[in-house]
Amino acid sequence: MKKPHVVCIVGVMRHVGKTTILTKTLREMKRRGLQVGTIKHIGNRSTFDLPNGKDTSRHLKAGSSITLAVTSSEIVIIRKDLPVTLESALRQMPKELDYVLVEGFRESEYPKIIVADSASGDLPDVKGDIIVKVLDGKRILRAGARDQAEKFGDSRLVDLIESYFSRS
């Protein structure tokens, strides 16, 4: 069975537009009929660690390995029984996905889209291939194309991602 292609969208620093690039890329992939999942790295404590006294946090504090919180419009799964790694999260994704877009995890070996702005300075060293760099949310600098930026477009970015994976 095939595994989805994984692309990490990483920033030079905070607030450079990683989430914006991810959501634009996701929308274009969906427009093309692709099945896409996402993973968001949260660097500090989870926003799901609810205050003491809330029922969900009480389930977790009592020792639940997995808790599902069900509302009228979504199901949130909180697992405490897995290693907290990108690989562990990826194993939870359905295999029928075409792509998994990951916000963060700069240190992973997966291919990257690097997001920067003019004030960011030098681009960071990252592990894994760089598919493309997005500068100021307006220009794309393809890997290996030194100083040959082209105008950013959601469609063009997805073309470059698909081209990268068709070669590998």
Structure description:
There is one protein chain. With 168 residues, this protein is an alpha/beta fold. It has a single domain, classed as Rossmann fold, CATH 3.40.50. Helices cover 24% and strands 27% of the residues. The protein is built from four helices and nine strands. The protein has helices at residues 18-31, 55-61, 86-91, 154-167, and strands at 5-11, 36-40, 66-70, 75-79, 99-103, 112-116, 130-135, 139-142, 149-151. A seven-stranded mixed beta sheet has the order 2-5-1-6-7-8-9. Helix 1 (18-31) packs across helix 4. It is globular. It starts with a strand and ends with a helix. The mean pLDDT is 83.
Strand order of the largest sheet: 2-5-1-6-7-8-9
Average per-residue pLDDT, rounded, comes to 83
CATH architectural designation: 3-Layer(aba) Sandwich
Structural class: alpha/beta
> What is the radius of gyration computed over CA atoms, rounded to a whole number of angstroms?
18 Å
Sheet with most strands: 7 strands, mixed
Unreliable stretches (pLDDT < 50, length at least 5) are none
Total individual domains: 1
Strand content is: 25-35%
**Alpha carbon gap, first and last residue:** 17 Å
Q: Which class in CATH terms?
A: Alpha Beta
Order of helices and strands: EHEHEEHEEEEEH
Identify the CATH homologous superfamily: P-loop containing nucleotide triphosphate hydrolases
- The number of helices is 4
Number of distinct beta strands: 9
What is the CATH fold-level name?
A: Rossmann fold
Helix content: 10-25%
Shape: globular
